[in-house]
Amino acid sequence: MKVKNVSLVEKGTIVTPKGFQVAGLHSGVKRKRNDLGVLYCENPANAAAVYTLNKIQAAPIHVTKATIAKENKIQAVIINSGNANACTGKQGEIDAYTMQKVTAEKFGIKDHYVAVASTGIIGLEMPMDKIVPHIAQLSLGISDEHAKAFGESLLTTDTFQKSICFQTEIDGKTVTMAGAAKGSGMIEPNMGTMLSFITTDANIEPNMLDMALKEVVNQTFNCITVDGDTSTNDMVIVLASELAGNESLTPEHEEWSTFIKLLTNTCEELAKQIARDGEGATKLIEVEVNGAKTDEDAKKIAKSIVGSSLVKTAVFGTDANWGRIIAAVGYSEVEVNPETIDMAIGPIKLLEDSQPTGFSEEEATDYLENEHIHIYVDVKIGNGSGKAWGCDLTYDYVKINASYRT
After folding, report:
1. For residues 117 and 181, what is the distance between their CA atoms, to the nearest angstrom?
2. Where in the sequence numbering do the catalytic residues fall?
3. What is the pTM of this model?
């Protein structure tokens, strides 16, 4: 199969793929920033989604699962931030369905073509007196201002909007994919406290889209960790408008791998932006593991390293304390040979066959001043490889989370 080039669209947004519009505004759920947004497609888009594996799931998760299950099509996603509508009992379900119904009426579409997503504080009743009247005020568009207003409406403790857009060519047609996301703390997917909305104009049936999404999420969003907590609300939704004009994509299509690359690049970039914006974070940590028995083993080791509080604090403190890294390898519950491990941070080799290299502490400290830190581990017992992303653990993480509700 051919894998064509996938290129970044520098000024692309969530509405660059054909058929999509967005809106965002301030309804008063939050004190200042936009807190209500909608993603809309001009036709019912083929849809696929993955959800948090936390056994306590918020009302919007229940509603969206049931909605997508009906036809695997979504035309609008209504999103609020500031209130998670989680652990709110029957009233929470009623409120989520009310948001769905009011949004459907606003755009003249079927109720079950509307997905619902919420993020924010758990356990508070939804301020429906603020949300419902403002849904009617959502004004769709495709401008950069509309995209920014929508992106802001997703945020909670995030310090910046997460957005990306890529293009490729399939069947001689330009196919575009874009995403917008939020996520900053409580990040330990499957899924963490994150919402990700991905749009594409590719022609692909829902079952194929679902298969592709599950494959890619496992290698991207499920490879990030900020603090080890898994939230109650979180999901990734992909909508395909089918307006690009390519032949319907299946694994038998000669350019299926190109589509997978397009989806992988989109999800990986959003995942890295989320990891970089961990609450109080100053650095993105990327861990690459090679030489494991399987790819899954390599991913587990990488997540063990990037999820270690001691590794995170060492990176924050620019301390090349490789003992913390190798300890995380050892407790990853993955088979390794303690005598054959190579390790490096950036270009600096720390271990060769589990023996210290006598590296320069000064050079290591200088490297750890960078904002993007790479850690490489080769356990040398197989051909498995995997990556994971996270961030450093700072004083501000404690400060932010100690006062989250106040």
Report:
1. 12
2. 193
3. 0.78
